[in-house]
Structures are given as C-alpha cells and as structure tokens.
C-alpha cells in the first residue's frame, strides 16, 4: 500500500489516513482545482442554470479558468452533430436536465480525429471528456476577453489528449459518465423537482460539477427565504456495489452544506493517495422547509 501511495498523485492527494474532516478536504480540493486552465485564456462555460445559480458557482469556476454563462444552453441541445474546422468544439461536462459545457473552437478534422482550442484545457495529457459539436449564437466582445456564446450538441465522441498546444478528440466511442440524480422539495413549490444528469469523470472537475449542479437544482425555482431549514441526504454508488451514504440538517445556510459535503467526499474518493475511486451514481435528496 505504501508503494502505491507514493506513486499516486503525491502532494496533490487528499489525506485519508485519519478521520475525515470535510471542511479541510474542501479547502484541499479547492487548491487542487484552482487554475486548472493554465493557458491564461478564460473559457466560457455555457449552462442552463439560472442567473442566480451562476452567481453562486462563478467564483469556484473562475478560479479554474472558466466563466459560467447562463445562455443558449437553456433553449435545448443543438441539432448540429458535425464537428467542422472553425466550428464549435464543446465539452459537455454535465448533460441532461442540467447542462454545463466548455466551449472552444475546432482547428482541424482529419478522418475521425478532431484537433481544437489551440491551447490546453486542463493540460493533463491523457483525458476522457465527452465531446460534441454545437451552434454559435453570437460573439460577445469585451476589452479583456471575447468568446462565442454557443450551445452544444449531442455527445459524439471523446476528448483523448489535452496538451499545451491544443486538444485532440476521437469521433465515435463516448466515455463513461457518472449518473447524477437530484430531488428537490421546496415548501414554496407545489411539486417535487427531479433532475437526471450525466457528469464527466475527472479528478479535478467532477467534484466541482457535482457541487454546482446541486446548487443549481436547489435554486432553480428562485432564492430561498431568509429563514429556512434544509434536510438532505446523499448516496454515492461505487464499483462493486459499495455505497457511501450521509445525511444532515442545516439552518439558514441555503444549500451550501449538501453541495459542499458532496464536493468534499467526491474529491476525497477521486484524489486519495491509493486509488482513484469514481462514483458510478450520485443521488441527492434535498428538502427545504420553513
């Protein structure tokens, strides 16, 4: 075990040798994800989350080099399935009822191989991100950063390599994704809201995407009143049928507690010094009451 630990991630790992301190794990995980987009260019992260939800998740994603934008993704999935030079190259890191997609530009297509971005995304070398084409709706120009406002299409392949000078993907087989189900019951909403999503597998991005999806789902019908209670439970299904469950109760903290706990535990599983344990399914139930 000691030999495996010394060869897996080094100081970038979350320490699981003692009792789990979720607050400390969250701090460590924030450091792991900060600045993963190392080329200095801010990439748009288009999403169908509400503007309020985008405000809640903005600081975390901006530290990763991504700018959450509530935009065309809300209208649905683009019908464009062909990745073409100069067109959209999207990475739908969360798809389904909640959508978050990193948007870049295709450089060239050679057979089933796609080259894009012209710079790194995470720069982690071998990766497995879902990949799709998309549709550009408009170009937003600013003095600091200009970007395309676009919506992604259906997943049609896998981004395989992420290097300093660009990214490379293969059209065809799609990567394994994490099933995410979020149930939200609010005292000010007459119906239960259920969100079914697919989340990309990545040691740095996945915990952040899960946290953001939980925040977005709970705030999708508007802000919570100043006085409220939140009861929540979460279950992570792991390989071999093993399950990790937790539940808790918070008061007047919005839904930060369930989102932060899920973030911390997923980060600990995927960034421990022994083996990257990827959840096969994450199920979250949130009850918001007075």
What does this structure look like?
- The chain is of the alpha+beta class.
- It has five helices and 13 strands.
- It has helices at residues 2-6, 22-33, 51-62, 205-218, 256-270, and strands at 43-47, 66-70, 88-96, 100-110, 113-116, 125-140, 147-163, 166-171, 178-186, 193-199, 229-237, 243-251, 281-289.
- Strands 1, 2, 3, 4, 5, 6, 7, 8, 9, 10, 11, 12 and 13 form a 13-stranded mixed β-sheet that branches.
- Strand 9 and strand 10 form a beta hairpin.
- Helix 2 crosses helix 5 (256-270).
- The longest helix is centred in the last third of the chain and has 15 residues, at 256-270.
- The protein is globular.
- The N and C termini lie far apart (48 Å).
- The model is unreliable at 1-10 (pLDDT under 50).
Name the average pLDDT: 84
The low-confidence parts are 1-10
Structural class: alpha+beta
Treating each run of at least 4 consecutive H or I residues as one helix, how many helices? 5
Percent in strands: 35-45%
Order of helices and strands: HHEHEEEEEEEEEHEEHE
What is the alpha-carbon Rg in Å?
Answer: 19 Å
Helix content: 10-25%
How many individual β-strands? 13
Shape: globular
Give the terminus-to-terminus CA distance: 48 Å
